[in-house]
Amino acid sequence: MDKSLRRPVIAGNWKMNNTPEQTKALINAMKPLVADADCDVVLCVPFIDLYAAMEAAAGSNIKIGAENCHWAEKGAFTGEVSADMLKAAGVPYVIIGHSERRQYFGETDVTVRNRVRAALNAGLKVILCVGEVLAERKLGITEQIVCAQTEIALAGVSEEELKNVIIAYEPVWAIGTGETATPEQANEVCAVIRALIARLYNKDAADRFVVQYGGSMNDGNAAELLAQYDVDGGLIGGASLVAEKFAKIVEAASK
Ligand code: PEP
């Protein structure tokens, strides 16, 4: 297997932070800092900030994503945004199944699968989040949890469609806590996901499949995490809100 078959993806998840004006300012600050990146750079922002983000990122190497989308094409779903709406707005990426949505908004493996389906149907690129909670890690069932989440989310996804999917392995206990998985822990689970992709599809698809690590990745620990064989990038929350920190992570992924 050859790690160079995979181009790293560094994605920021801005969560519920920043107004449109703040979004533009932060992207304008980041643009020169990541201009020489030898990896894909994505920033996922709240719906209300998408146009401002795309305007600020236009002509640069920064791609913009949403943080969620609904599974239905349209209809009576007050407050929701469909995958087709994102596509029509020119948004290329969407995060699906983030643990904060699973924890606070009743997201289940089945709704995650439905959202993945809708996003792929619309032609979006999906950053699919999977990961265990602390109690599951302590019980020694991390692998089962992550494999079940992945297998359900990818049910019905063809090998061709899989090219538009990235998986972010995000141990829930490491998100926003400052507690990072060790590089070995991160690599171990990313490798399990890759092996599952090989079983569900084939070795070639698995060799080319991007698996990110997410969970308190920052400018200090990124290099070691990203050097791991099965870690192909990062999904970054807190550190993606600071231009210089995010740029250092991008730089680490570009080596
Ligand atoms: C995330 O929100 O996906 C995340 C990894 O957050 P943080 O980097 O702040 O832990």
Write a compact overview of the structure shown.
By secondary structure, the chain is an alpha/beta fold. The chain is built from twelve helices and eight strands.
Describe the protein:
With 255 residues, the chain is α/β, with parallel strands linked by helices. It has one domain (3-253): TIM Barrel. Helices cover 44% and strands 15% of the residues. It has helices at residues 20-34, 50-57, 83-88, 99-104, 109-122, 134-139, 142-153, 159-162, 183-200, 203-208, 222-226, 243-253, and strands at 9-13, 40-44, 62-66, 93-96, 125-130, 165-169, 211-214, 233-236. Strands 1-2-3-4-5-6-7-8 form an 8-stranded parallel barrel, surrounded by 5 helices. Helix 11 (222-226) links the parallel strand 7 and strand 8 (233-236). Helix 1 (20-34) packs parallel to helix 2 (50-57) and helix 7 packs across helix 9. It is globular and about 45 Å long. It starts with 8 loop residues before the first strand and ends with a helix. Phosphoenolpyruvate (PEP) binds next to strand 8.
* CATH H level, superfamily name: Aldolase class I
Oligomer: single chain
Q: What order do the SSEs take from the amino end to the carboxyl end, as H and E?
A: EHEHEHEHHEHHHEHHEHEH
Number of helices: 12
Strand content: 5-15%
How would you write the strand order of the largest sheet? 1-2-3-4-5-6-7-8
CATH C-level name: Alpha Beta
Radius of gyration: 17 Å
> Can you give the mean pLDDT?
97
List the uncertain runs: none
Main sheet characteristics: 8 strands, parallel, barrel
* Proportion of residues in helical segments: 40-55%
| Number of extended strands | 8
Number of domains: 1
The CATH topology corresponds to TIM Barrel
Distance between the termini: 19 Å
